[in-house]
Amino acid sequence: MWLPLWLIFLGHFVALCIWGVSAVVVESENYNVEALEFREAILTCKYQLEKNQAARLEWKKVDLNGEVSFVFFNNSLAADLQKRAEMMGSSIWFRNLSRGDSGQYRCEVSAPLDRKNFQEIIINLAVLVAPSIPACDIPSSAMSGSAVELKCREKEGNPASEYKWFKNGLAIELSAKAVNASYKVDKTTGTLHFNTVTKEDTGEYYCEANNKIGKPQRCPAKRMQVGK
Ligand SMILES: *[C@@H]1O[C@H](CO)[C@@H](O)[C@H](O)[C@H]1NC(C)=O
Ligand SMILES: *[C@@H]1O[C@H](CO)[C@@H](O)[C@H](O)[C@H]1NC(C)=O
Ligand SMILES: *[C@@H]1O[C@H](CO)[C@@H](O)[C@H](O)[C@H]1NC(C)=O
Question: Where among 104, 128, 152 does a domain terminate?
Fold first, then answer.
């Protein structure tokens, strides 16, 4: 009884192997590519076909706003990429990344003669960019007892920066869960929020943006005076 069963399993296994190589198969060595701006990166896309034929290869890009554009079409790279990228077989070699290259890239292969005649894969490219100098919004004066918000923001950093506030040169507790703290720092949005300011909150404030790419950046310090 055991021998026929064993044979059946072997038969299935062999059939699966044949099926596995008998349709267009598209793969990448790296589906999440991260690289610094002005450096290079390779988006790899390799494919196998069932039948010998001229397959059609296309690359499309979905940028961070959801817009789709052609990257490789009709056997040529998009005009704006030709100076700083080239094809290596079916893979794209960016020789000099710019921040606008971040997005999703779709490698699409059509093989009309194959049973399964189309496959695509998606590769994410993140171009890492250091923060710029954040813009800070620090009121020069505030009324004692009022609610006050200090703001800090920079938009160049990728990944998005985290923010830290300083008062008179000393870091303000990040998550001010400290009992009775009258302020709260949101490291993601960059706001320093006071429920009620008191005279003791008078001082020189600045904020620092950091995303671990390159140097952290800070805005110029500014004095906030709390009065009656
Ligand atoms: C594709 O490129 C060839 C030359 O390389 C050109 O003759 C043809 O018109 C192009 N087709 C399209 C649809 O752009
Ligand atoms: C990469 O591009 C930047 C800006 O487009 C340029 O300033 C820089 O010289 C380029 N680097 C190389 C190695 O081509
Ligand atoms: C917090 O404030 C309450 C009421 O103002 C006070 O009784 C308490 O001692 C304070 N706790 C700390 C840790 O400062």
Answer: 128
Rounded to the nearest angstrom, the distance between the alpha carbon of 37 and the centre of ligand 2 is 9
Residue 11 forms part of a structural domain: no
DSSP per residue over 112-143, as a string? TTSSS-EEEEEEEEEEEB---PPEEE--SEEE
What pTM did the predictor assign?
Answer: 0.76
Cα(77) to centroid(ligand 1), Å: 12
Question: In this structure, are 69 and 153 located in the same domain?
Answer: no
- Asked whether 162 and 211 are in contact (CB, 8 A), the reply is yes
CA nearest 180: which of 196, 199, 158? 196
Domain finish residue from 62, 94, 128: 128
pLDDT tens readout for residues 41-60: 999 999 999 888 889 999 99
